[in-house]
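To: structure subgroup
Subject: Chain for Friday's discussion

All,

I'm putting the inputs and outputs inline so they're searchable in the archive.
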Amino acid sequence: MATRVASMTESGLLAALTVVMALIGVYVPFLGTVAVLMWPLPILVLVVRHGLKWGLMAIVVACVLTAALIEPMVSVRLALAFAPGGIALGWGFRKGWSPVRTLTTGIVCSMAAKLAALSLLFALTGVEPFSSQFEIMEQSFDSSAEIYRSMGMNETQIEESRTIFTENLALVRLLLPLIVVMMGVMDTMVNHFFGGIVLRRLGHEVQTLPPFAEWRLPPVFVYLFGFSLVGAYWGSTRNISLLYQASLNVSMLATFAGLIEGVSVYTYASRYFRWPKFFAVAMMTFIMLNGFLLRLLCLVGLFDMVIDYRKRYWKKKSEE
């Protein structure tokens, strides 16, 4: 009986916390983005401490309260887009899964949830997802153009800027699937990290990811990158727009994976050669700001997935 009362009390408190985070997400600029990103955290903790049933009940209570205080559509979108990822992470922590398995499951559930939420929004409103954001960006550019025009800027320069802006906006539209994927990856990583901190503070044993300098991603990204280049060429030369868009998204995803691996290799190398911390940070900043070096770092990361520089060269030397 005491355990049940404790579960009910903690469930109520954590459900109330999710409602507060939803209110911050809607009404507080900047901080609201962080609050929405970490909205699944209380659900994650509740699933670990008291089980899946209490986590689901807290989600229902939070949805009802959020619908009453804000609006039903916001409540449904939050729960549908973010709750599954939190539940998956909490279940993985509770079952003692490896960090990689927990993260992978959480990412897959989070991405599926984001797609479901966007599909529901389109089905109910008939409005294309992110269309309002694109309209705001276009209006913002038009306002900026008027300001520059009033300051005497050459009309040719304004039109050139408009052309570049339009091209970049079209590219962003093509990369919408990748944006959804990255949203799922980002909120899962954030909640996995902070969830581990909170659970350890509460006395739970939580397996942690290896140090960032030891990270290695699967070689599948290398093959995806190669196939995406072929697909992009075929799609552009044969006017197969769907193939071109899919290849472009896969290429950017593989490139991003290569960047993560490249930064990991760089971190390991800076420690292996005992570079001063200030020098290592300054060099990484310079690489990030230089387009050529940034692309080179991505390629280094992609090749490392197959070659494994650290094990083949540096670790072997240290063992000798």
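Points worth raising on Friday:
The chain has 14 helices and no strands.
Residues 49 and 204 are 9 Å apart (CA to CA).

D.
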